[in-house]
Amino acid sequence: MLAQQRIEDDTVGSEDYQDLIARNAEKIANRRNLAAFWIFGLCNNFAYVVMLSAAHDILKEEEGPSSNSTNSSSFSTTTESPDLSYLQCNTVSTGAILLADILPTLLVKLTFPFFLEKIPYGVKISLISGFALSSFLIVALAHEVWLSILGVVCASIGAGLGEITFLSLTTFYNRNVVSMWSSGTGGAGVFGALVYAGFTSAGLSPRNSLLIMIVIPVLMMISYFAILTKSVQKEKKVDDSTLLLEEEKQKKVALSFKQKLKLIPSLFKYMIPLTLVYFGEYFINQGLHELLYFNGQWLSKSEQYRWYQVDYQIGVFISRSSVNLIHIKALWVLPILQFVNLALLTCQVFYRFIPNIWIVFVIVLWEGLLGGAAYVNTFFRMTNEVPADKREYCIGVACLGDSVGIALAGVAAIPSHNSICNLHLKM
Fold first, then answer.
1. Shortest CA distance to 98 belongs to which of 420, 403, 427?
2. Widest CA span of the chain, in angstroms?
3. By C-alpha distance, which of 46, 74, 36 is closest to 233?
4. Are 413 and 286 in contact (CB under 8 A)?
5. CA distances in angstroms from 77 to 54, 57, 61, 265, 417, listed in the order given
6. Where does residue 26 rank: exposed (0-12), middle (13-18), buried (19+ CB within 10 A)?
7. Which of the residues 34, 57, 370, 410 has an alpha carbon 20 to 30 A from that of 172?
């Protein structure tokens, strides 16, 4: 009897020990997955953030100091008195760079969700990394305007394809990876701007700075093939530690093209608020930021614009990292608040009623917070509300919302901005 009892105790102890090992292994795997998705977000948006500034710098370097080429963040002034400035906008290059930046992403998001799920994730992520790598190399080595624009196009395609792919991939893992992906994309705005500015400020040329950044797409590949756990999840299989077996069976049911089309109207409640928030956000960024200038500050006009951008990116980063602390279910509130920002800053451009630049900094930070909150809460809600068998496709389609908003804002902001620039504004 004693021997039998000892054997049973040893068996129980062995099972407990195995359970402990399994739990620890699951915790480690979960941490690896969270880290991988944060890196995915960072790497996916990094080239997209850097490309516009780098392409402009290299074009300026090629064409010399007398060139009039500008991007959407640059303008020239001539002053007849200390209080009056005339803004001169170069619409051709601004429009070309803006279209190169957003239209390829929009095209990718309009078409790829209908067939992208048939391509293995390893292949998709290799393509994303390839486009990002190409963008850095092309812009770094370009000696023609069209080549620099082609580099921007590659960055745009890679970012659009990456957003669909990685958001769809989140459906196979713990729901917290959505917040890590969103945080990483927010971090790309801050770190991308700081790293590029840091390299160039340290004396590196824009070309050499971009060549160093080819480590970013390499890091994305390492994260997928070495950090993300795939001992269970391989291509179209799910992570058993995070999803129910019933959901795993549901995910194997392929949706027909007709079923996919019928699902789109049900996604409007997620997509329309996201589109409106991004429209207001990018109209402010593209059309108003560089006109919100204060005289007599410790920052020059161009420095004020750059710090508005940093301020905005900080807001995006904070809110995209906040979904585990704050959940916003009423998505329709966010576009209302963003349009209040748009109206307020538009009035400031014309009437100059805000007395201090710090007030504008607070508004711009709030603008970024609203944009990031709309993004992360939209996809977090979908992760919890959309049925598991439709989630991968629906999330891929819904990410079209932000690109539509950006494109519409660009179409509206370019003529609006140029019209304002032609007016004699009191600065």
1. 403
2. 105
3. 36
4. yes
5. 23, 19, 21, 47, 15
6. middle
7. 370
Q: Note whether 103 and 407 are within 8 A (CB).
A: yes
The backbone region for 264, taken as left when phi is positive above 0, alpha when psi lies in -120 to 50, beta otherwise, is alpha
Secondary structure element (H or E) that encloses residue 424, with its range: strand 424-426
- pLDDT (tens digit, 9 = 90+) per residue, 152-209? 889 989 999 999 999 889 988 988 898 899 999 989 988 887 888 788 878 888 889 8
Q: Please name the residues in contact with 264: beta carbons below 8 A apart, sequence gap of 6 or more.
A: 397
**Spatial CA neighbour of 117 closest among 404, 389, 400, 403:** 389
197-206 as b/e, with b when 16 or more CB fall inside 10 Å? Answer: eebbeeeeeb
Q: Determine the average pLDDT of the residues in 13-38.
A: 82
Q: Is the dihedral of CA 117, 373, 314, 326 positive or negative?
A: negative
Burial class (CB in 10 A: 0-12, 13-18, 19+), 87: buried
Task: Using DSSP, state whether 171 is helix, strand or coil.
Answer: helix
pLDDT in tens, 137-154: 998 888 887 888 888 889
Residue 340 to residue 27: CA distance in whole angstroms: 44
Eight-class DSSP state of 255: P
Rounded Cα distance between 316 and 369, Å, is 5
Confidence (pTM): 0.74
One-letter amino acid identity for 43?
Answer: C
Count CB atoms within 10 A of the CB of residue 226: 10
What is the C-alpha to C-alpha distance for residues 331 and 318, in angstroms, rounded to an integer?
Answer: 18
Query: At 303, phi and psi to the nearest 5?
Result: -70, -40
Query: Vertex 368, ends 112 and 338: CA angle to 5°?
Result: 90
Mean pLDDT is highest, among 47-51, 308-312, 372-376, for 372-376
The predicted-structure confidence for 32-88, as pLDDT tens digits, reads as follows 999 999 999 999 999 888 876 676 666 666 555 444 433 333 444 333 334 444 444
- 425's enclosing H/E stretch is strand 424-426
